[in-house]
Design brief:
The protein is of the alpha/beta class. It is built from 16 helices and 13 strands. The strands form 2 sheets. Strands 5, 6, 7, 8, 9, 10, 11, 12 and 13 form a 9-stranded mixed beta sheet that branches. The chain has a 4-stranded antiparallel beta sheet with strand order 2-3-1-4, covered by helices on one side. The structure holds S-adenosylmethionine.
Length: 462
């Protein structure tokens, strides 16, 4: 497949948006009955910095048949948001009012269809104009029509005026941060961030080998290649819905990126160890750690009760019902911890997500540079708190899905400097880049997501 080529996405006309809410959550109620208008409502929420694209898509009501197209449209707009916004700004004589973010979103959707998706021009424009009616904002039809047609007329000139970061569909701060941190790899990182992510599976080694499962996939007509570094990983040639995966609901395989599959391999795993997955939801790494050693005494913690339920679902599917689940804040152990130290701790810290932008392109819009400093402080607090629960001789694996050094190697340097009983255990591996502390995986189109790992051991006093 040529991954640089934009996907061909079928055009969709107006549709009714009836359907069932997903996962029993209260459904979002888009004030619209056409898919572009539904997308505009969701994207307007993001423009207002509310929620995330995945959570909005999780609860929106649309017929199952329409979901892939809606999802593809929203993801494509987010993937190209910095470019689309830069093209839109000079086309608007004055900014739209805050209450008209849905019209703003419709304009981005129109530009995206014209510039990125191969939707016939007349359909892209007419359907987007009609969507204003569905939003009960008929007054905006003339504006949408005028802006999209002006874009068609001035496309070459407008494109020529884009700054490099805008043309590369990255916010300026992130583009600068990538150039500064990874000058030799920046172009590749940026291209990967703008690409469509692969679907990668983790085969449950408690059930069968990767080769056997690959044969089962093959029988279903699903082509897959073994991952280069993750021994349980299979990368699918094309994504498929999970219900087409053989034995998925019996726990034979899980969906997990290759880089994320490296975490459990870096952790101790022997029967009876008392271990903590400290930021565990939705439980991807918890499940893998248990697949490697089902006799672990595992506690999985997350501060978010809704997300904790997803760990429960995942561990039920994988048949690990013995895990202790705790809803609590890692920074406040007194609220949930029984004072028994852990032999090993996985801290998959909340982070910028700068290594997984291809999977969560709304990061380009939602993540703000001023929030990174606060995130870095939070990570240091969580690291210190997790350390206080680690037994002497125990191991803590710190990881993020970030590629920013301040969340990674610099974070660990600060922690080691301030923590006399912490020693770094180098990670000797064929993957990633050895940093001053820890190892960094950069996102690549042919490989896994951007991830960072550092392994720390608590020295035994004496
Ligand atoms: C990167 S995700 C973890 C992904 C997970 N390890 C996996 O592999 O499926 C980070 C998680 O940390 C949780 N979190 C954030 N702050 C926390 C805190 N103070 N205490 C516990 N969990 C926290 C978030 O709710 C989120 O689920």
């Amino acid at each position: 497949m040529n991954r640089n080529k934009p996907p061909v996405i079928r055009n969709k006309g107006a549709r009714r948006t009836t359907g069932r809410p997903q996962r029993g959550k209260s459904p979002a109620k888009p004030a619209a009955t056409n898919l572009r208008a539904v997308a505009a409502t969701l994207i307007a929420g993001l423009l207002n910095q509310q929620g995330s694209l995945s959570s909005a898509l999780d609860v929106v009501r649309v017929p199952d048949n329409d979901r892939p197209w809606l999802q593809a449209l929203c993801f494509e707009v987010m993937r190209h948001y910095p470019t689309l916004q830069a093209l839109l700004t000079p086309l608007l004589h004055k900014p739209l009012k805050e209450r008209d973010q849905d019209i703003h979103a419709l304009l981005l959707i129109g530009l995206c269809q014209l510039r990125v998706m191969r939707i016939a021009e007349h359909a892209a424009i007419n359907e987007t104009v009609q969507a204003a009616d569905a939003l009960k904002k008929g007054w905006a039809k003339g504006l949408i029509n005028a802006v999209l047609r002006q874009y068609q007329r001035q496309q070459a000139e407008l494109e020529a005026g884009l700054a490099p970061a805008e043309a590369a569909a990255h916010p300026q701060w992130l583009w600068d941060a990538i150039q500064q941190a990874w000058p030799g790899n920046a172009d590749r990182i940026i291209a990967t961030n703008n690409s469509h992510p692969p679907m990668t599976l983790r085969v449950n080694r408690q059930q069968e080998s990767r080769d056997v499962y690959r044969d089962r996939l093959d029988h279903q007509g699903i082509a897959a290649e073994p991952c280069a570094f993750a021994p349980d990983g299979l990368r699918l040639r094309s994504p498929v819905p999970v219900d087409q995966l053989p034995g998925f609901y019996q726990g034979d395989a899980s969906v997990q990126d290759e880089s994320a599959q490296l975490a459990a391999l870096l952790l101790p795993a022997s029967p009876g160890l008392r271990v903590l997955d400290a930021c565990a939801a939705p439980g991807g790494k918890t499940g893998h750690w248990l697949e490697i050693e089902p006799q672990l005494h595992m506690t999985a913690l997350d501060v978010d009760a809704d997300r904790l339920r997803r760990i429960e679902e995942n561990l039920q599917r994988l048949d690990f019902p013995e895990t202790t689940l705790r809803c609590g804040d890692l920074g406040f152990p007194a609220d949930w911890w029984d004072d028994q130290p852990f032999d090993a701790i996985l801290l998959d810290a909340p982070c910028s997500g700068s290594g997984v932008i291809r999977r969560h392109p709304d990061i380009k819009l939602l993540r703000k540079p001023e929030a990174i400093d606060a995130l870095v402080e939070e990570q240091q607090t969580l690291l210190r708190s997790a350390w206080s629960m680690l037994a002497p001789g125990g191991v803590l694996l710190y990881c993020t899905c970030s590629i920013l050094p301040q969340e990674n190697a610099e974070q660990v340097a600060r922690f080691l400097h301030d923590t006399p009983d912490a020693r770094e255990e180098p990670i000797d591996a064929a993957w990633g880049i050895a940093c001053a502390h820890g190892r960094q995986l950069l996102p690549t189109e042919e490989g896994g997501d951007g991830f960072y790992y550092a392994r720390l051991r608590k020295v035994i006093a004496g």
